[in-house]
Amino acid sequence: MAFRDVTIKLISHVYWHRKVEFMLEEDKYPCWTIFAVEDGRFSYRVGEQKGEAEFGDFVICPPHTVFQRKTLEPLSFHFLQFVWISEPSFGDEAFWKGKLTINDTDRLSSNYRYLRQLPGWDEESTLHKQHMVNDFLRLVKIEQDRKDDPSTEVDLLMEKARRHMTEYAYASLSLFDLAVTLGLTPVQFTRKFRRAFGQTPSEFLNEMRLTRARHLLEGSTLTLDAIAEKCGFENGFYLSRVFTQKMGMAPSIYRSRHRV
């Protein structure tokens, strides 16, 4: 099951702290919905799937599907709604439904902390929130692909690199200098990062930058050069080339189709 570089667009996020009970025992939502448990426990039923979820678990409900739920302990969770930028291919839909579990709880806790610290919906917060949720889904897929390899461990050095790249993604960031700082050659850095996260450092960086570029194309009238400067690209020409290669259309066409 191939994992796409760009997966979802986040449209809603609410954090609930120690919720004693749900207002409704069942509900339907018009878009894809995630209950990401940070603390506590609840029972659920999504279609024919049922069980219990706690820290480390996500329960994903497709649109217009009955979602039954009941708190078993005071529940702290992130309520997230999204749309797929590219719909899951046939056969993937069953995977993205019901409970999914992340074993790398250190990284999960870090992402939860960032989500809690970004309560607003200004442009910067929205971009970072979307990156966190995409990271959840990517991590689920990476762990699923590696479940038959129990020797695989979290690479702490690459986690350090990922955090640094996330913090400075939109600035002038040299992957060569980062590799040297980590005590690696560029080739070693690329191999280790791909082994840890399923993509190269440049792919990871471009994914973050293109996500921001898409939002600016949708919600602003900035020129392509101005957007490139805000997203960490050298200039508008280079942004256009990367954008067209990854998205399958020029930025101008994307803007005309997706303007808010």
Automatic annotation (TrEMBL):
It holds the Pfam family HTH_18. It comes from the Bacteria. SMART domains: HTH_ARAC (SM00342). PANTHER family: ARAC-FAMILY TRANSCRIPTIONAL REGULATOR, HTH-TYPE TRANSCRIPTIONAL REGULATOR EXSA. This is Helix-turn-helix domain-containing protein. It comes from Paenibacillus germinis. PROSITE patterns: HTH_ARAC_FAMILY_1, HTH_ARAC_FAMILY_2. The chain crosses the membrane at residues 168-187. Residues 159-257 form the HTH araC/xylS-type domain. InterPro entries: Homeodomain-like_sf (IPR009057), HTH_AraC (IPR018060), HTH_AraC-typ_CS (IPR018062). Keywords: DNA-binding, Membrane, Transcription, Transcription regulation, Transmembrane, Transmembrane helix.
